Amino acid sequence: QVQLVESGGGLVQAGGSVRLSCEASGRTFSKFAMGWFHQAPGKEREFVAALSWSGASTYYVDSVKGRFTISRDNAKSTVYLQMNSLKPEDTAVYYCAADERPYTTGQVMSVVPVGWAWGQGTQVTVSS
Questions:
Q1: DSSP per residue, 72-102
Q2: Which 8-state DSSP code applies to residue 66?
Q3: Per-residue confidence of the chain (128 residues) as pLDDT tens digits?
Q4: Which run of H or of E encompasses 6?
Q5: Strand, helix or coil for residue 107
Q6: Rounded distance between C-alpha atoms, residue 103 and residue 53, angstroms
Q7: Which among 77, 101, 108, 120 is placed 20 to 30 Å from 54, CA to CA?
Q8: What is the DSSP string of 20-55?
Q9: How far apart are CA 75 and CA 110, in angstroms?
Q10: Rounded to the nearest 5°, which phi and psi values hold at 76?
């Protein structure tokens, strides 16, 4: 199973930016669609963004469209989430996820919040 380690979270003011990173190891990263989910206190884990194995297709929840960008660097086995124009409601633990079925688009991650390989999560707190 692929191992995922997130980094880059922290405390940021509303309107600010943060870039999350997720480094993968253990299996061939370049074959996997990748995604980001978040979980706020008392809420279920929710989809944020996904990226196909090729990087050609991206998917976002409506609330982050135009503000967040998911990208990948296969040479570094890393997926990123650039988060701009942050809002207090973006406060959550952010989890990286991998679809270990090779060569998928990642679209299914937008509707299925379970069953993926997960990282340990990184906290993002946006102050007003």
A1: EEGGGTEEEEEE-S--GGG-EEEEEEEE-ST
A2: T
A3: 899 999 999 999 999 999 999 999 988 899 999 999 999 999 999 999 999 999 999 999 999 999 999 999 999 999 999 999 999 999 999 999 999 999 999 999 998 888 899 999 999 999 99
A4: strand 3-7
A5: helix
A6: 6
A7: 120
A8: EEEEEESS-GGGSEEEEEEE-TTS--EEEEEE-TTS
A9: 26
A10: -105, 5
Longest dimension (CA), the chain: 41
3-state SS class at 26: coil
Strands 58-60 and 33-39 turn out to be unpaired
What letter represents residue 88's amino acid? P
Q: Counting every residue, how long is the chain?
A: 128
